[in-house]
Design a protein that fits this description.
Length: 386
């Protein structure tokens, strides 16, 4: 029977240490939280600048809700698009140095809508093997031919581009890879896009707000500008609110508005969120002190960790993965940390490749140095005991 098979499949997840669990947080997003009835020090969130619970954003959201109400009432292209959405899109475009931006309800929707709008049957997508699932799913939805090149390997990408006869080509990459914390070679990718007449789509979910002057992201940090660039920024991570945007050439963004199904066929995001995001952009732009503190915490963690068997992966971003390898061992270490009051997620396949289970440590500007030292010392002790 179908249900029996499903139960057996769930049991198999348990056997392979792959069943996911959900915890319930009873306090606002912050390093110190109450979760499942326990007070914990958390290293889980992508709230890199500590803005999710910032009073200024909460106030802007309250003011927005008082004026605009709770919902938008329709899709953006019917009657659910408001003046504050226009203001947000214009501000986002200016902030990242693009002609125009389009605001999506989620980052997943931005990626799965944008890729099929740009390419289809007879076209080709060239994607880094460690791209986020939303980019993979967007590529599959497009029905274009998908080429996945070795992670961070421009030479492999060049070979794939050189042998392709597709009429349209799209290179797709994360800017900061969410499970490794490393940064893609963006300048080289743009050079290849120009040489082989391809689009270059960059998902800067984990770089926006953190990298570049004023937090303008990885593309700004690399000093890149081109009509070929399609820039995706997430607004639920460092920006502390919700949603995402796609920015680039004005004609490209107009085409996305006409063709991206995840934009056209969904209710518009509440306009009150746009009010909060406008406040967030101001805090990001003037957030150098937060970014400097965050960089200092990253450096501190890397100094304090003294691992012999586990591996701290190379990363200059707030994502600091500790590679353990075995699924069960990664879960056991996460449980041991939990028992000490430290909440660090164990990441296993299919989120990461087989044999690369890890702890994904996320640092934020809301952490303090003592928080980081506490985690580092606990990990050093646990590895010595294993």
């Amino acid at each position: 029977m179908l249900l029996d098979r499903l139960k057996a499949d769930l049991a198999e997840l348990d056997t392979r240490a792959l069943r996911r669990t959900r915890r319930s947080v009873a306090t606002p997003c912050a390093p110190h939280v109450r979760v499942d009835g326990r007070d914990m020090l958390a290293f889980c969130s992508n709230d890199y600048l500590g803005l999710a619970a910032d009073p200024a954003l909460a106030h802007a959201l309250q003011v927005g809700a008082a004026y605009w109400g709770a919902g938008s009432g329709a899709s953006h292209l019917v009657s659910g698009h408001y003046a504050v959405h226009d203001e947000l899109e214009a501000r986002l475009a200016t902030f990242v140095g693009c002609e125009r931006a389009l605001y999506f309800s989620t980052g997943y929707m931005a990626n799965t809508g944008t890729i099929p709008a740009l390419v289809g049957r007879g076209d080709a997508i060239f994607a880094d093997r460690l791209n986020h699932a939303s980019l993979v799913d967007g590529a599959l939805l497009s029905r274009a031919e998908l080429h996945r090149y070795a992670h961070g390997d421009p030479a492999a990408l060049e070979r794939a581009l050189a042998t392709s006869s597709a009429k349209r080509k799209l290179i797709v990459t994360d800017a900061v890879f969410s499970m490794d914390g490393d940064v893609a070679p963006l300048a080289t990718l743009l050079e290849l896009a120009e040489r082989f007449d391809a689009w270059l789509m960059i998902d800067d979910a984990h770089g926006f707000g953190v990298l570049g002057a004023g937090g303008r992201g990885a593309v700004a940090e690399a000093g890149l500008a081109s009509w070929r660039l399609i820039y995706v920024g997430t607004l639920g991570k460092a920006a502390g609110v919700s949603g995402a945007f796609v920015a680039g050439n004005a004609d490209v963004v107009e085409w996305l508005m006409q063709k991206a199904r995840t934009y056209i066929f969904t209710t518009g995001a509440p306009p009150a969120l746009a009010e909060a995001l406008l406040a967030s952009l101001g805090l990001i732009e003037h957030g150098d002190e937060r970014r400097e503190h965050l960089a200092a915490l990253v450096a501190l963690l890397r100094r304090e960790l003294a691992l012999a068997r586990w591996q701290l992966l190379p990363s200059r971003t707030p994502i600091q993965p500790v590679l353990i390898g075995d699924n069960a061992e990664a879960l056991a270490v996460a449980r041991a940390l939990w028992d000490e009051g430290l909440w660090v997620p164990a990441i296993r396949p299919p989120t990461v490749p087989q044999g690369t289970a890890r702890l994904r440590i996320s640092l934020t500007a809301a952490h303090c140095a003592d928080d980081v030292r506490c985690l580092a010392h606990a990990l050093n002790r646990l590895e010595a005991r294993q």
